[in-house]
Please model this.
Amino acid sequence: MTAAVDPAVDVEPGGRRSGVPWRALALQPVLVLVALGAFAVWRSGAELTDAEARPLGWGALGGTVVDHLELVAVAAVVVLVVGIPLGVLLTRGPFRRATPLVLGVANTGQAAPAIGLFVLLATWLGFGFRSAVVALVLYSVLPVLRNTMVGLQGVDARLVEAGRGMGMSALSVLLRVELPLAVPVMLSGVRTALVLLVGTATLATFIDGGGLGLLITTGINLNLDSLLYSGALLVALLALAVDWVGRVVETLARPKGL
Amino acid sequence: MSETVTDQRTVSGVSIRLEGVTKRYPGQRTPAVDSVDLEIAAGETVMFVGPSGCGKTTLLKMLNRLIEPSGGKIFLGDEDVTGQDPDRLRRRIGYVIQAGGLFPHMTVGTNVGLVPGMLGWDRARIAERTDELLDLVGLDPEVYRDRYPKELSGGQQQRVGVARALAADPPVLLMDEPFGAVDPITRQRLQDELLRIQEELGKTIVFVTHDFDEAVKLGDKIVVFDVGARVVQYDTPEAILAEPAEDYVADFVGAGATLKQLTLTRVSDTELHTPVTAAVGEDSAAVVARAEEAGERYVVVVDGRGRPVSWPSVAELSRTTSVPGTRDDRLPVVGLRSTLNDALDTMLAASQGGVVVTGRRDAVAGVLVVEQVMAAIQSTRSEVRG
Model:
């Protein structure tokens, strides 16, 4: 047939990047920055007692935030390194049978009260950073694991067959077809896990793991509202910021043509 | 691939031989495919037809070992490929599935270049081959190379699927109900396209379909299967229509076998009328004079490559100064290898009394009018009666 008689020849090349909701994405960082600015203004002008001023000093505050981020980052790396390969493995041939078992364990990890998980692990592995990371990983691996599996299972089986049928190896089909197509779902799992981590990492302070939870517990114990609120606000802003970064990455990493 | 020319037909395919090929699934009493012996000649298009669940698709997928046979041997040419590494085997066998099976996150060009890439071709050669193939299936490389599959219509996606399967010039092409998901008019065009490509390339094609008309139109031979992939009849379309081997085949062929003869007659089998043609931009008065001299009331306007653009009447043309290049999207066109059935369908769809017939590279080969189709029906009917 000639292209001349094909009525659908002039399909518009749908604008490839036009789907990016930049305006919606711009709102979140603006809110975070405004709140952060308001906090900075309050902190500079507020009259603080000595007990308040020490942890709220710029240096101390920065250190606490870095501690918190360190917890989150280390746990996140472990979650990715464990969750994604495990999710991939559980969608491959014979390993599929282990799926209910592994998902069961991951579900238990998430369903168990986080504080209980922290304390139990601390009595077993000792207090400190390491136990906190293990607890955080157990608590937040589920979304990554599950979304990796769901994303891969969502890839049209005919595309996998087409890939195998043209002579791609199983690994090549996984890397070039299945994973790229599963990326949007997987990244949304990663974002969920990161936001969970930022929030849950506040509990690390109970087992001497550091982080912004320290401000909150100190504020409660010593009845210092300024510490309590500062800690709570900073955790919330951090979670929002991480969520935003996740959204931006999701938008940019989304394969073209979908 | 060495190309040999026999009976003026290009053959770049190899023969396929099946010996006692069997597929048993665990827990099933009867085998899905029960010891099939079959020989397919190089360069032939063989159609697998049969009811759903008869094992024809299973048999097809055993040819490229997407399904591993439980027994028997498969030969490509003289080479026993039953034990060969399946991934390497598949790179030598083109595979086309419904809707093309294109990867949505890759451009058309990337999709087509996948197998050459796996075979280690260099970048420039892949790019050149991709353009060549897009051109072969009737898609302008400049326009389509960098598009994503979702920006294409169903028929265009299917054509890219065919281009992708042909990319590394495999001797064998397996097609699993490729045209099942497109509308009838597009399907007919895709079939014509495949016939034209096959005429140019001469691959060995194994094509699974549930549409007997499609089998008659496309196949050099047809295999009719019953349950367990039992070969009930393996013959040319003409022979199967004329003498169905069993009642089962007669049922499958259907009662309209007389009219199915229309499906057997190709446009190229009829005597085509040679129209007066005019190039786009030519002086209208000269064209009108030429047409009047030939006693023609219509003129076929062609582009620089001889492809039909529109089909205006002499009266229409005489109102212009130079021949207009406006494409008529509803222009009824069929290929030389189309059947009279297709030609009649196309005329009815366009509400016209004739069709423009195109041959190699879509250039105008002639004109077919409805009277000729009617005459063909009359003659086959009287043949059948008499």
